[in-house]
Write a structure and sequence with these properties.
- The chain is of the alpha+beta class and 227 residues long.
- It has three domains: 44 residues, no CATH class; 78 residues, Beta Barrel (OB fold (Dihydrolipoamide Acetyltransferase, E2P)); 82 residues, Ribosomal Protein S8, Chain: A, domain 1, CATH 3.30.1370.10.
- 19% of the residues lie in helices and 32% in strands.
- Strands 7-8-9-11-10 form a five-stranded mixed barrel. A three-stranded antiparallel β-sheet has the order 1-4-3, with no helix packed on it. A three-stranded mixed β-sheet has the order 2-6-5, with no helix packed on it.
- Helix 3 packs antiparallel against helix 4.
- GO terms for molecular function: RNA binding.
- It is found in: Cytoplasm; Nucleus, Nucleolus.
- One of its GO terms (biological process) is rRNA processing.
- Pfam families: KH_6, RRP40_S1.
Length: 227
């Protein structure tokens, strides 16, 4: 519950990191929003609540729509209380002489680098050093499908315990961009596959891994039958 005190066992070998929904005051940690306390594999504790509006956090991946050009910046709607900003040089290969071709209405996949209550969020769309997110940048305007889902579902999709994409990869060829702001972009080999993938993702919110596998198998059979 909100304002409830949370206690952790901390040692020099077991550092704890606070995620969304938790706030440290002096030596105490308090819950700042209602929800379920959860922990990731790398000792990040957070409160999983059914919030409707996305609150940006550093290093989170987001999918947004370019709404306006402001000099060297672009304004991007990521579903937060404030629209985000991205500099034209925050794209791979961009220089002062080689500006990226970005238009209002383009779909963008980026990472939050600045998220403060008193400032507009800022994004970057360059690949990280490990190349973990090869899709960062502008997503193909004539391909794929962008849809909105709950923040709870997005957190489930990126959880190591969720086997949805492992199951889907056995039956379909596709690519996705999962935004922690509740925006998901999916692109299959054709329109029928893309629609089926969107159905599988949205249906996974209230399903177990076993139910997900059964549902995906039925979708795969239907798609192959249509083709």
């Amino acid at each position: 519950m909100t304002s409830e005190n949370v206690k952790f066992k901390i040692s020099l070998l077991n550092q704890v990191w606070l995620g969304p929904g938790l706030r440290r005051i002096a030596d105490d940690v308090f819950v700042s929003r209602a929800g379920v306390l959860k922990k990731t594999h790398n000792n990040i504790y957070y409160v999983d609540g059914l919030q409707k509006r996305y609150v940006p956090a550093p290093d989170e991946m987001v999918v947004g729509i370019v709404t306006k050009k402001l000099g060297d910046f672009f304004r991007v709607d990521i579903g937060a209380s404030e629209q985000a900003l991205v500099h034209f040089q925050a794209f791979k290969g961009a220089t002062k002489k080689m500006r990226p071709n970005i238009n209002v209405g383009d779909i963008l996949f980026g990472k939050v680098v600045l998220a403060c209550p008193d400032m507009e969020p800022e994004l970057v769309c360059c690949e990280d050093t490990q190349g973990e997110h090869e899709r960062l940048g502008i997503l193909p305007p004539t391909q794929g499908h962008l849809f909105t889902c709950s923040l709870h579902l997005v957190r489930k999709l990126v959880s190591p315990d969720c086997k949805l994409f492992d199951i889907l990869k056995k039956a379909f060829k596709f690519e996705t961009a999962i935004g922690m702001n509740g925006k998901v972009w999916v692109n299959g080999v054709d329109v029928t596959t893309t629609i089926a993938l969107g159905d599988a993702i949205l249906s996974a919110e209230i399903m177990t891994n076993k139910e997900i596998e059964e549902h995906c198998n039925k979708l795969a059979m239907n798609v192959h039958f249509i083709k």
